[in-house]
């Protein structure tokens, strides 16, 4: 049986999903919705959050996580929605396709992210892989992003799961 913070976080996500109610529909993230502000926020999230631990500060990958700057996608098709889905649900150990990397990715990298933050991170990663934008240098000591309450974060997890479930059942 799993023990520790990962197991606790995963368990809480499952509980939150099981207790969810039906939220309003979410518009799928498209290329036309991506703004410079989103890209800047996404760069900050990648650098300040847990992403850089496995994918590196410049998203070029490490022995724990794959390169996010190329056009080779191990999980999903590289679309904004596929990247968003991977961020939300993570990659479990049995889903890892590159056997040289055996570190699973926890849902949202164990960060408390709202929809706007998930969209910004997905947009930034998508833009790096397409050469749409260059890597943004981020002062990781400056925290320009707002923090969410635990309740807001759990609602976001529930809403994102419900949206994903509805999209896959169509």
How many domains make up the 3D coordinates? 1
SS field, number of helical segments = 6
Quick check: average pLDDT?
Answer: 76
Which regions contain 5 or more consecutive residues with pLDDT less than 50?
16-23, 139-149
Identify the CATH homologous superfamily. Answer: Cytochrome c-like domain
Q: What structural category do the secondary elements indicate?
A: mainly alpha
Give the terminus-to-terminus CA distance. 35 Å
Beta content comes to: under 5%
CATH architecture: Orthogonal Bundle
Radius of gyration: 15 Å
What shape does the CA trace take?
A: globular
What is the CATH class designation?
Answer: Mainly Alpha
Order of helices and strands: HHHHHH
Helix content: 40-55%
Task: Please give the number of β-strands.
Answer: 0
Examine the coordinates and then state which fold CATH places here, giving the name of the CATH topology. Answer: Cytochrome Bc1 Complex, Chain D, domain 2
Sheet with the most strands?
none
